[in-house]
Input
Amino acid sequence: MHDAAAAPEPSAAGWTHMIHGYAFLVVNEQGGPSGDRDFESVNHLMVSFGHALWGGEVSLLGTFSLEPVTVPPEGSPLLFQRGETYQGVLLIDRQHAHDMFMELAVAWDRALSKSVSFRAYVAPVGEAPVGPTAYTHRLSASAIPSAPLSHHNLDSTHLTADVISAGFTFGMVTIEAGVFHGSEPGENRFDIDGGPLDSYSGRVTVKPVDGLSLQVSAARREQPEALEEGNQTRQTISLMYEKQRPDGALAATIAWGRNLLPEDQVERGTLVEGLWTFKRLHTVTARFESVDRDVYELVNKTVRPETVPPDRTIVDTLTLGWMEAIPWLKQLDLTAGVNLTGYRYESVLDPTYGSHPVSGKAFVRLTFPPASAGAHHHH
Output
């Protein structure tokens, strides 16, 4: 759902509208022999229009990104990341750019009683009902320009083709189900990838108190990977807390997900991240992750051939960051920050990654329109 720190603005003919976006300008230095460096921008723009319809409200939702232009075509350097392809080769140590069209959707919400409401959602490209709130919309992730390494275990389905979903909210409990096209987006970042409704998912979300939400979800995804045969089952569970305060914000997310792969392989990801903004100006942030990876992929930077037996290994990472508001630009919501990431892994990877690589990102973040301190618009 699109919501924001500010209320929707009324416009002509009974339509309300909201606009929100952010852009990071990042100097990215990934350490060790497998690392790389670049200057990049990760960014997105969200717009929504709402209007009364059939006793409820219809919403037109759009999310767009310039990353196909502002991130290298082979992806942003990010040690131990894997997923999607470039020129027919699996991306290893790279985070793919998001598509220009991240969401084009129509939603309809209607209250059925004081405590029961219904939502329908149709999207040529949009979010399937599985996983925690996507990192691009999580307050706890908003001061870290890197995608989580567990992105493809948890929330990569925030960019999915041909989604049809429906949900009921009963008080604090929301139950959703949907069908969608299972393939990951293709290498052309400027088009909309369509296909048959061959995959399905369900999610239960509980919000026991204000700011706290627990979700459990699963998806059956038909042939999601371009280079790897077979279907996937994804299972996730997460707990998220977000609290805006007059002097800042406090947010935390704990999430665990796994993909059940062919050959009885299991790919797991665990994430713990937090953010604290205080005195309206200062933000500290942290993200810990534990993911498992295929050793052959990491060493050879390509898909493991079927003739090589699987050998999986655990990689742990810790990112710590600091972000500072730039208060003398009152018209702009501008902050500057730095993140440092360290790693722990088995010595078998030392020749490929070095013994103790450290990665860093220095960035400026522009949020628009300017929000109150610490406010972060999100789904």
